Amino acid sequence: MSLKNLMVHLDQSKRTASRLELAVSLARQHQARLVGVFGQLAPSQTVGMVSTWPTPAYTEAAEASKAAFEKAAAGLPQAEWHDINRGSETEVLHHITDLARHADLVVMGQHDEMAKSYAPADLVEEVALNSGRPVLILPYVGTFAEVAKHPLIAWSNSREAARALCDALLLIEGCDKATVLSFSVTAEEARNNCDAVIRHLACHGIQADSETMLATEIGIMDMLLNRAADLGSDLLVMGAQGHIGLPFVSRGAGTRYILRHMTVPVLMSN
Which end of the chain is less crowded, N or C, counting CB atoms within 10 A of the terminal residue's CB? Predict the structure, then answer.
């Protein structure tokens, strides 16, 4: 089994070319359909009391996106470009999340707080938490022509971690080597959980090493990113969590931290 239906988010940002390049590479590798979805924030044009849509600027950006997509996707088995044709934050979030539900994998880019934003700041988090599909997020710094040769799997024995691992299998099968980093409240529990994951990966022909970490340690997300860097990992696999109000105000904090500070591509599922 392989990935057969991929989606990549497109906008005017400079990093769009990087995620399009990776999405095309994955589509070619898996002989998959690739859908490029253009969606970005844009105000309507106001003349007197009348607002019109789309604006000439939006139309120009959309046409440029379509041309770039068609050029990059030339030769793929199936390639389609789609314009959500909406500019408000609410509409962009809604339409892109809805379209993502029909893909095997969604390729998106990390929000860059220091650059001009063409998409809602919480777009990636919204898609990861509410689309029901795995999201592959590329950092806004670095070049990533391929991923998943040396994945690092963050395992917490949670529903979200299990979902992420399952969704990542099609991407990491055939990898050179995987590392499972299991964290729990006790070292013994972390080791037992890690052994179970390694046996599961072995059933898929994936060789993995194991490491453990106590969930009570401060700065666990920083330590996770540091291990990814130390190991030369080109993909971090982890579950995505969202906060659900009191008394769980800290739930999802790790997900948001990784989305802000990620240094390697991350596959998230919820």
Answer: N
- Say how many domains are in the chain: 2
Summarize pLDDT for 186-216 with one digit per residue, the tens: 889 989 999 999 999 999 999 999 999 887 6
Backbone angles phi, psi at 58, to 5 degrees: -65, -45
Residue 43 DSSP label: P
Residue 146 lies in a domain: no
Specify the 3-state DSSP secondary structure of 34.
strand
Residue environment code for 126-164, b if the CB has 16+ CB neighbours within 10 A, otherwise e: bbbbbbebbbbbbbbeeebeebbebbbbbbbbeebbbbb
36 and 132, same structural domain? yes
| Parent domain of 184 | 151-269
Q: Kindly state whether residue 144 falls inside one of the protein's structural domains.
A: no
Both 29 and 117 in one domain: the answer is yes
Record the pTM. 0.94
List, for residues 127-176, the tens digit of each pLDDT value. 999 999 999 999 999 989 899 999 999 999 999 999 999 999 999 999 99
CA dihedral (105, 109, 110, 114) in degrees, to 10, reads -170
Where are any strands of DSSP class E within the chain?
A: 5-10, 33-38, 45-47, 50-52, 78-83, 105-109, 135-138, 151-155, 178-184, 208-214, 235-239, 266-269
Q: E strands along 215-256, which residues?
A: 235-239
Task: Tell how strand 135-138 and strand 105-109 pair up.
Answer: parallel
